[in-house]
Amino acid sequence: MGFIRFSGVDFHYGPAGSSAVSILKGLELELAQGEFYVLLGPSGCGKTTALNLLAGFERPSAGTIVMEGHAIGEPGMDRVVIFQGDDSLYPWLTAQENVEFPLRMTGVGAAERRRRAATWLSRVGLANHGQKFPHQLSGGMKQRIQIARALVCDAPVLLMDEPFGALDAQTRTILQDELVSICNGSGATVLFITHDIAEAIILADRIGVMRAGPGSAVKDEFALDLPRPRNRGSVEFAAAYDRIQRVLGEEVRKVVTREAAA
Ligand SMILES: Nc1ncnc2c1ncn2[C@@H]1O[C@H](COP(=O)(O)OP(=O)(O)OP(=O)(O)O)[C@@H](O)[C@H]1O
């Protein structure tokens, strides 16, 4: 049995019955401990909804989400969420203080806090920027701080919702490579959402492609056993890209065709 398991998960908005808007229908998803799982899917298919359910921000309308044998009911310190953009940093705190913040909330002493935050700032390449405030840092630097702040707690599960979506292509590539080396051997189980097939192939152990909504679920899964770090120019990379593009492209076309007809 998986470390995390979605079984027959439905999610709808609005009152039950015909007027409810069905977002997810019968979603089955299983993540092994330490696995890096990437969800791809056309816009609006329910990727963020699935992540929010695992985060405990929402409850399933039907079915169960179980982690280590316990049903997920609410947010917890064992699951850390990293969002797109940098709005979640506290602008009145320095980079170092932002990374220390979750440790302060859990009662870790000042010296230990400083030491652990400094270690993570250094791991994300910002050892010399700890005293700066968010407005003095670039988008990529702020995203690195978000990652350091998430990882400083040693949470066993990381939930990343298009964390690099707002960054330029070069910074994005660098942060993808950094995330691979940070996560490699960390033991963390990661659910990562993106629209970007190349990003998914760089990062994932497994990729799930979701159907176009409404009532979406995982259509196809791809296990990637290419060694890391992965070479974006390799034949194997191109072959994986092609296989996934075919499945995802079909779902994206459904959405585009529907939007054109509306
Ligand atoms: N609070 C809400 N009330 C009603 N519908 C909602 C609500 N939040 C999201 N939705 C709808 O649920 C569907 C799935 O949204 P979700 O954000 O999970 O999709 P997504 O796959 O992450 O999309 P994207 O790739 O565009 O970010 C969308 O059609 C969206 O409009």
From TrEMBL:
One GO MF term attached to the UniProt entry: ATP binding
Superkingdom assignment: Bacteria
Statement: the UniProt record of this protein carries the keyword Disulfide bond: no
Domain ABC transporter: 4-237
Keywords (A to Z) from UniProt: ATP-binding, Nucleotide-binding, Transport
Family under the similarity heading: Belongs to the ABC transporter superfamily.
Protein's name according to its UniProt entry: ABC transporter ATP-binding protein
